[in-house]
């Protein structure tokens, strides 16, 4: 009588079992990443579920420097709360997605305070130099970092003329669901992309309107009927480092 | 008489000590990388202002030197200077080893080093970084083929194949160093960079530091084999090359700084790097110019060629290499320490260091990581010469004669 050979007794069973287990493990570990990447890839983010960002829009911001209060940090505080950064007390290594900058003309004595963040350039140098394409510009002009493929080379930080990017120097926890962050990757202002896609304004703009001088205006620069388009048409505004020809989406008045 | 080559397996106590030292530094470097990986870059001196620190200084220095280490092979096969032919194999091995050392430091200094493969599967070809990934990997492949063309009995008979590979390697290494220099040259927003001269400057630097590594390794081999691998004539030839390359680097460095002095807007960064920038003018004038350029040039010019001997040439190589590290320290760290001019003509200040010179104090882990790149390169050379015949046996110029 031929002895019954059970499956696990056959030569190679252990190997097959191992491969099956490894395959299952890989599928479990990698699949979520692949899925997340698929949704996070350039151009795939949607204003409404399933709809891609539209190139018909150019989200932008107009900041009236004359209305920006000295020492007021309402926009900075709102950004911290919305996006969950600002945990580090070290100004050298801590993230700063938005900051208040004091400027002074040494010849005339004129001075002002203004908020500075990612300027969401039409031709962003950060995206140009990024080796993996992790830094990218959405069709609607919002410049983002795909945290899944950022390798932390920091070349974008070297390239950004506005020092608008931060590198996550330490392990972090308690992240906000709407603003994923990760040690060893680069981050910057997202223009509160999740809020914008939900039809809201960035947190800094809302905070400035509610608690401060209303110096910040947000809207679609491509829509002639929008408040921001009317405002930039009615009065001169300037881009910081306009000489570089990057066409930032953030513009300043009374600078 | 055809040059014979040998492996090097019977090491002296000193050689084993050098290997052991390199193993220790490699292990320390790996430990440092693990430490940085688990704690984040907070354990380095790097910040959001100085985003590339000491590891990048070593990495760029090694990558640039790698391209230049191929000098001797190129001079031999592309420019038909047969006197250099016995050293061509070692020059190729050294080129690959230095590149491996530099790239390993670069990768381990990434914020997410485990994602290095993403750099191969996701490419943005508008980025010079992405191009460099292919320039570097292509360099290794081409130099390996180059070595094969020199060492394989069948392949070495085909002059056309050898010449073709030699020319490809020559053009490729120029492209590689152009790519490395352009990493800085293409940075439009930084006053210390943003200049086309970065590419030729890096090429000239590669010639000098690559040759320095080659000569230093050759002289170490001479001690090891107890044979005179480099006679007086070759010492004279290498001295001549050193002079030409070091003067070229000096000339391009002068142009690099003088050009910026011409623009009033750039004088601030120039004065910072050359005069009032604290450590950077010191590293530049004392390290790069005095000790790393003028002193070795003076040694080269001081006595007549044959009297110099290997010891003087070894000293010259080490001094040039020291000068090279200083040069890249000033370029990479000094260039970042100067604040971005976000509001030209205005004085800026903020909680993020706007308008202020950035401070940088390298920490032990990042120094160990940088040094481990050199250790890895040297260990790879030591391993290569153990397993394959890269070291020439007979005195070169006696066997091959002078240029055709």
Number of helices of chain B: 14
The helix content of chain A, as a percent range, equals: 25-40%
Mean pLDDT of chain B: 92
CATH topology name of chain B, in short, is Formate dehydrogenase/DMSO reductase fold
Please give the CATH architecture of chain B. Answer: Up-down Bundle
Span between termini of chain A: 96 Å
List low-pLDDT spans of chain A. 1-19, 23-46
Rg of chain B computed from alpha carbons, rounded to a whole number of angstroms? 21 Å
**What is the string of SSEs of chain B from the N terminus onward?**
EHHHHHHHHHHHHEHEH
Query: What level of helicity do the residues of chain B show?
Result: over 70%
Radius of gyration of chain A: 23 Å
Percentage of β-strand residues of chain A:
15-25%
CATH topology of the largest domain in chain A, which one? Alpha-Beta Plaits
Structure write-up:
The complex is a heterodimer of chains A (255) and B (404). By secondary structure, chain A is of the alpha+beta class. Chain A folds into 2 domains: 40 residues; 197 residues, Alpha-Beta Plaits. Helices cover 27% and strands 15% of the residues of chain A. Chain A is built from 7 helices and 9 strands, in the order H-E-H-E-E-H-E-E-H-E-E-H-H-E-H-E. In chain A, strands 8-1-9 form a 3-stranded mixed sheet. A two-stranded antiparallel ribbon of chain A has the order 2-3. The longest helix of chain A is centred in the N-terminal third of the chain and has 28 residues. Chain A is globular and about 40 Å long. The N terminus of chain A is likely disordered. By secondary structure, chain B is mainly alpha-helical. Chain B has a single domain, classed as Formate dehydrogenase/DMSO reductase fold, CATH 1.20.1630.10. In chain B, 70% of the residues lie in helices and 2% in strands. In chain B, helix 3 runs antiparallel to helix 4. Chain B is globular. In chain B, 51% of the residues are buried. The C terminus of chain B is likely disordered. At the A-B interface, strand 2, helix 3, helix 4 and strand 6 of A face helix 6 and strand 2 of B. Strand 2 of chain A pairs antiparallel with strand 2 of chain B, so a sheet runs across the interface.
